[in-house]
Amino acid sequence: EFRIGQVSLDLAEHLAGIPVITLRKGKISLGLDDQGQLNWLAMLKPAPANPPPTAAATPAPSAAEPPAAPWQVKLGEFSIAGLAIDYADPRPENAVRAAIGDLGLFLKAEATAGGAEPPLVHVDDFAMHFKQISLEQNQTALLYLDEISLGEGSLDLPARTVTLPRFTVGKGRISAAFNEAGQFNWLRLAPPAAGTAPPTPEPAAKPPAAGVPPAPPWKVSLGQFSLGGIALDYADARAKPPVQAAIGDFGLSLKADAAAGGAEEPVAHVRDFAVHLKQISLNQAKNALLKLDDISLEQASLDLPEQTVRVPLFSIQKGTVSASMNAAG
Question: Cα–Cα distance between 35 and 41 in angstroms, integer?
Fold first, then answer.
């Protein structure tokens, strides 16, 4: 279903109202062909090359003519629910498949643009989730996550503030590995295109004109970030014998505030920082080198302006560490 409801438009007042936009249930498939071209772009055939039309001279507005009023758009509710997304790159040197089983999004917004004033954007009640997230390369699973969700966020463009009360990543598995040639599996997801020219350095930003105050910094507030129930696997085939490592349960949580941009130095405050690693193992061939039940850090904080880090509690609990020499010393 795709629905837009009860739209209103006032040309005289430059007002547009869209109470509801809804997309419900469906699937979008993205893929590359053997030449690396995206399937959606293949539908767009380039127009034949024609000389550009001569631009007509636009008369300058009269000095007494006031600028046009800005357009104001109010979006009552925009929602996406139950949308699945598939992606496939079948090229044999880098066969990649990715999927999101359920994408959901909700927001309310107001925007003003045009006229003599800078654009204004306000976004409220922003929420988003991704469920059943998977990524595999050459039929080997690299990542699976049950859910990533963001809740009750807001954006105020004039004030340059972003507020995100909740950001959660829950349950899954991430696998990383080096093959015998020393290639890291995650770095092979996007192989460099042949003959790609080095990037052109961006020109330095121009200082603000005299008498124009610098733009205020962007401020970001993260109420609660939490990650839990993530298993991590690592394998290194470069070593002889090969090495395997695993963390059965990785968890992390924190709260943060940051400001960057403008004329001031970046500011960051991280509080209530906690991390735990459980069921930790390190093996080489059939030999267990390390096994630990738990490593945890709790109630830590970071103050970037003060350059201070506080770690009230750091613990390592239960386990074994093995070391030995072979006949060659």
Answer: 13
Quick check: 17 and 74 in contact, CB under 8 A?
A: yes
The pTM of this model reads 0.80
170 forms bridges with which residues in the sheet?
147, 228
Amino acid 50 reads: N
- The answer to whether 133 and 144 are in contact (CB under 8 A) is yes
What pLDDT sits at residue 63?
A: 59
At 188 the three-state DSSP class reads helix
- The tens digit of pLDDT for each residue in 47-87 reads 666 666 666 665 665 555 667 788 999 999 999 999 999 99
What φ, ψ does residue 238 adopt, rounded to 5°?
A: -70, -35
Angstrom distance (rounded) from CA 284 to CA 65: 79
Distance separating alpha carbons of residues 115 and 67, to the nearest angstrom: 6
The conformation of residue 165, written as its DSSP 8-state character, comes to: S
Q: For residue 291, which of 265, 318, 310 has the smallest C-alpha distance?
A: 318
At residue 88, what are phi and psi to the nearest 5 degrees? -140, 135
Return the number of other C-beta atoms located less than 10 Å from residue 259's C-beta: 21
| CA distance linking residue 123 with residue 184, whole number of Å | 39
Sign of the C-alpha dihedral, residues 29, 33, 37, 43? negative
pLDDT in tens, 94-152: 789 999 999 999 999 999 998 778 889 999 999 999 999 999 998 899 999 999 999 99
* Look-up of token digits 């539908």: 43
Which residues have C-beta within 8 Å of that of residue 197, sequence separation ≥ 6?
none
SS3 state at 157: coil
**284: part of which helix (H) or strand (E)?**
strand 267-284
Question: Token pair 């631009």 is at which residue?
Answer: 55
**DSSP three-state, residue 252:** strand
Q: In whole angstroms, what separates CA 179 from the centre of its chain?
A: 27
Distance, in Å, from the CA atom of 256 to the CA atom of 60, rounded to the nearest integer, reads 49
Residue 132, Cβ neighbours under 10 Å: how many?
14
Is 169 within 8 Å of 130 (Cβ atoms)? Answer: no
